[in-house]
Design brief:
Order of helices and strands: HEEEHEEEEEEEEEEEEEEEEE
Distance between the termini: 78 Å
Structural class: mainly beta
Strand content: 35-45%
Helix content: 10-25%
Number of helices: 2
Number of strands: 20
Length: about 260
Amino acid sequence: MLNLINKLTIIGFSIFSLITFACSSSDEVPYTLAKNYFVKNDYPDRNLHMLKITNDEKFNSIFGTASLMGEKGKPTEIDFSKNFVIAMIDETSNTSAGVSVKSLAMENGKLKLTYELERKQNPDTANFRHFTILIIDKKYEASVYANMAPQNGYPITGGDLDDSGCKPSTGYSWSILENDCIQPWMTKYVFDGEIANAPLIFSKDHTKAEIMRNSKFPENLILDKKPKSKVNTWIKGDLVLTQIKKDSFVLKEKNREIAKGKLRE
């Protein structure tokens, strides 16, 4: 009888420990809101979008400092050796009231940001560009996606954003060479083979080729044209893209053919 009580006590304590651990563990990710910055005038005016920024160069190309008098007027310090930034930038508008972050959490190895887009019923007399900057410890760095907080319990169509500022639910992905969100199925060229359906894009002068991210390559790849080559060839590391005839290309990895590029049908 005593042994049974001891066993029940151990089981009960184990269950209590599991419950306590489950309650105390949290996937919420801490962040600090940066203050006293502004979006530079030469930054393109786009619909609400999100960016993950990991270095000073990119951050300073988008934001300037808006120092005010006093200690509290200094811009929030950002050390990119220890932190990265998630920025939500709205379009210039006289009805925008700002972007409010509701939560930031780690889910399945990715950062999920939930936000609300606030609008004014009575428009301002002037246009403003609202934005939010989150400073996050580098130990949490991962791919980021955002969803607008549900309204009346229902998700918002088109309220999603990836960390390039595109809306995947509407079929858009970021192209480095186009410097914009595009619909991948609208590109001139496409691959078959190991990266079937991956879009292939060239710069206007054809000195660069872009392979958009796919099941094999999680990030967009930029290949540079080999100078003074008899055959048009673009290279990045072990990847070699060769034009074999007009509108026809072969992609090799370590001298092994993995895909062919062709005109979309």
